[in-house]
Every structure is written in C-alpha cells, then in structure tokens.
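Our preliminary data section would be incomplete without showing what the modeling component actually yields. Below, a chain of 668 amino acids is followed by its predicted structure, encoded as tokens that our downstream tools consume directly.
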Amino acid sequence: MAATLLTVQCLLLAALMSLNAGLAFGACSFGVDNPTAAGCAHYDLSALQKANGYNATGSVGTFILNVCGDINKSALPASCASSPASPAYQLYNTDCVALGLLSTQTAYPVDPNNATAGVRVVYYGGATGQFEGDQKRVDYGALGIGDMEEGREVNLEDVPADARAITIDFICDPSAGAGQPMNVYEFPSFTYRATWRSAHACPTSTDTTACPAPPFEANWKSLSFRPLPTWFDDVKFGIFLHWGMFSVPSFKSEWYWHSLESGQQEFVEFHNRVYGCSGVQPEKYPCTGPSFSYADFAQYFHAELYDPDAWATLFKNSGARYVVLTSKHHEGFCNWPSAEHWNWNSMDVGPHRDLVGELTDSVRAAGLHMGLYHSLREWYNPLFLEDNANNCTDPKFVDEILLPTLKDITNRYKPEVIWADGASGDNPCSRDSTKYWKAPEFISWLYNESPVNRSVLVNARWGTNSGGDYYTGSDRYSPGKIVPQKWESCYTVQHGSWGFDRTEDIAMYWNTTFLVHQLVETVSCNGNLLLNVGPTADGRIVPAFEERLLQMGDWLKVNGDSIYGTKPWHFQNDTMQERLWYTQSKTTGEVYAISFDWPAVGEDGKPGDVVLTQVKDAPTSVSVSMFGVDGTLASHQAADGFHITVPAIDATRMPCQHAWVFALTGMN
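Predicted structure:
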C-alpha cells in the first residue's frame, strides 16, 4: 500500500462519552504516516468534541461542524430534522444537508511530507440528494469564480446523491488554544473544506510503527481528500514553456495546424505562400507548386541552439521556483521518445533529442521543481477521431495512447506537476473527465503508486466534473480577490500566443512592471503565477523574453521575502489605495505592504506618506522597514489609516523598480 496514505486507528471512546448518551461517536485518535521516521505520528482530538457543534461561515451558506461525533439534532434548525445523523451540516436558505457520515471517517496528514504539521479528518457520503442551492451554486460559482470555466464544468445529472463531503484540516498551533473551524469553502464541487488551528492538533507522540492505509480510490470524491503538497504553495512563481512543432511556423498561435485545417484565411494563405500548398479547401484557396503538409515542419524543427543548462540558469535567475514544459500539445507531437507516437516525437524526427529529459535534468540541477504540461486530446490522431465518431463507446485513444503516455512521462521524468489541458473534442462525450478521459483512474495511480506520490500535483483541467489539487481557471485568470482554494494563473509574456509568435512586435510584450504587478496581485489572492515564454524552433529564448525574466529576478532578489513562503493577509488590497497589496509571512507573521506607486514628492522635496487605509488600530509596538533600505521607517496611526514616512532616496540608490515593499513587524 502507498506510504503516502494514512489511516484512522479505531480506538473506541464510548466509555469516555457516556455523558453524551444517544449520540454516535467514532475514533478520535489517529495514526498518520510519518515519512521522516518510516512510522506513525499520533493525534488525539477528543478534547475538541462538542455535541452541539461549532458554527462556521463559508462562501456557500453556513455550517455546523463537530469532530469525531454526530451533532445533537436538538441543537440544529428544524430544517435538519429529515437529514441523517452527521458530524457536519450545511445550511443554505431553508435547506439543510448532511455533509458526511461518522461511519466514513478517515484521516490524512495535512502535509504528506510532514506528519507532525497536523491531521486532515474527512467525512463523506452524507447528503441525501441535491437541494435548492445547488443550481445557483453551479451557475454563479462555488468559489465566487465560476464553475463553468474550462476544466470545471459541472453536470448536475452526473453528481451522485451522496456526493457531498467535508475535510477539516486540523493545524498544529500550540498558541491557538482549542480554536474553532474557519474559512469553509467548496472545491471541487460538493467537497467542502475547513481549517481549524488548535493546540490539540499537535501530535501526542511519534513512533516507528507502520501506518497501513487504504488507497485513494479512482473517483474524484476520494481524490479530493488528498492534502496539497506544501512546496507548491511556497514557491509562488513558475515558468511555463510552450514548445513544439508549432514553433517552426511561429505564426500567430500554437494552434497553427488546427487553424490551417479549419480553413482560416490568414493561416491558409500564409502557409500556401511561404511553405507550399497545404491542400486545404483548394477551391477556395487555389495553389500551384509542391505540397507541404504540417508534418513536413518536422524537418525544420532542429533545436540546434537548445542549451537546457542555459535555460535553467535563466529561469533560476528570474526568481522562478518551478518550471512546466509542454511534453505534448494538441498537435500530438511529443518532446520525448514516446513509444506510442512513432515517428511523431523529438527523438525520431526533428531534433533527434529528448527535449523533456534534457531540460528536466538541468532544471533539477539548478534546484528548481520540474513539471510537465500534457494535452489530453490530439486533434488529428485517428484513434481520437474514431472515439469521437463512435460516441466514445470504445475509448481506444485513452486506453492505447493517453494513459500509457501519462504513466511513461511520470515514471521516466518524475514530474512534480502534471498540467493537463485540452479535455474536449467534437463530441460532448469526449469532454467527460471520468467516463472518457479516465482521469481519476490515472490520478489514483499517481497518488498511490507512482514514484512522485508524495510531491506531485495535478491541475483541474481534466474535463467536465473535474477535480484536481489546485484550481487553474481560464487562461490569464486574474480574479482580483482572494480565492480560498489554492490556484494558479497561467499568463503569457506575449499578449496573444503561448507559442513564440514572430509576427508580434515589442509593443505586444507585457512590460516588466505589469508582470511584477501580476505576480504580486496573484500571490496576495492565494495564487501562483505561471509565466509563459515561447522558445523558438532552433531552441532560443529571445531577448525580449530574457530581459523580462531577468528584470523580474532583480525585483525578487530585493523583495522575494514578500512573495515566497507567504500567505494572504486579512486584506488583499487597500480599499482607498487600490495599487497597494498585502501578503504575510507564514513563519514570522510579518505583514508586507506592496505599493505599486512611489509617493509623490512634495514642495519640500520629500516624498509623501504611504497610507494603509485598511489598518485602523495598529499596535504602538509595530515597526516598519523597507526592503532594500537600511534602518527603521517612521510611522504612526491616524484616523485615515496607518502612515509610513518614506525617506527621500536618490534615483541612483533606489533599491528596485516596479513596486516597493514595506515590512510591518508586530502587526496583529
């Protein structure tokens, strides 16, 4: 059984609970897998039991929660009378639904790589059907961000009646006392999540006893219980690379082949004029001369200037902490020697190199995390077209191509992110994450048996009703407000294309100031920024990309502590100062106010104050410093907010450009 999993060790506490006769109680002692000692960390949460439950608010209704025991029905609203006994209920308008059953209680470590950080307790299978709030939730988004974006479509007809579940993350915090559940939100659909910081959530002991556990099952519900590997939330900034056969024409879009075959005029006319006759709609686009198909681009995809060590050095100097490379885009061409793609991979044709393997080695040698993008669909693969034509009754493409290649790149390269995309086809049947793509089948193997089961993450673009470790949203997603579930924004340096587009001039590249601001806003709202650059067919990252990455690295060298290893503060941005954002250190509690504007200089030649209007009652002991500037800055609380006096700094001594960080020590 997989070492990443853990189990509830059923220690019945009935004798200790006689004062609560008539209520059902389960185990309150848990043994969870401790990888550092090849044994167990033991928890006892019995001190947190409360027969009448704890109240908690959330983005979708209100919640009443308990731990290790059903809630006393007499303490619940009348609308809960017909609901089964449960340790957790959701209240929405006049509805009351049970979120889980005590009999299904199970547990996992909050951090798969640190069993002493806390324990996640799960209850599932408690709902008796859909209720009035479901349709509204799906229409408007459980997270306030819209469930209908790519990879997060929800078909209510496919949702089982007992789909609801709740996970409670008990975080070890010796200073928190008993604490209470907070911040209840939903992700993925019908799975609710709460955080509970408590001194009682610290392990009572550790030992070398084995902790056998049941595996994650091949369904989204079971997979949703898996805790997020913590490295991903700490790194904050990654590099995305779209590189493939489309990099040869590098015209407009990485969707070149699809745009060509669908008869888009500018693509067909460009192709026929520059390369040869495409054969697309010859009556509409007459062409004389030799033919040239998309597959013929392979002879020009040489990657002769590809230096993976130089790429990895650039990415490290940019301040990025992880890299995600396209292993295969929708065209189906593979950047590694895929056995399922004979003569359509970078070893058999074109570069005759293992592009994925070489970069993986270089990125890891630079101390960065490595991930792989993988398109689920392949536009013109005969088996994929056949599956769509036969209504997906015999999914040969998934069974014979997709699943073997996903396991191949996992076993071969051990990626820590598998970034799925392209879960759609011409037939609606080929959009279903479970029935067609069999994503839960692959991901359960990934979590249970793969060589990266402790550290790997998957995104949430596996098709309709998709789950995942983190939310990806739509391309260039930027909510501007906190999203409770961990999320990632994939953003391009070029305005239009993800692959390199040689038709765009410098005006179509976002400048560094914009990109730094995008990073700050994303991190402030609980996200990671995955910034895309498109290499050329000969293996270069052009100077316009390089300049922006290096300039971001310069900013992060000064201000990285306000980004890496942080969490959202009570406020994300300042109400009156809209170009001022906040983060907070996870370890020290220090608050960082990140201003996109340098204060205007007054008549006395000195800059004005930075005013934090959200801070109304700062402790007098708060001290303020500015990253890159020695000493403590003067500050004071006023009626309009907390004032920071910014020193006059000569332009040649300015610590950075783009944004300035003020560190507040001792802020509640």
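The mean pLDDT is 88. The first helix runs from residue 133 to 140. Preliminary results of this kind motivate Aim 1 of the renewal.
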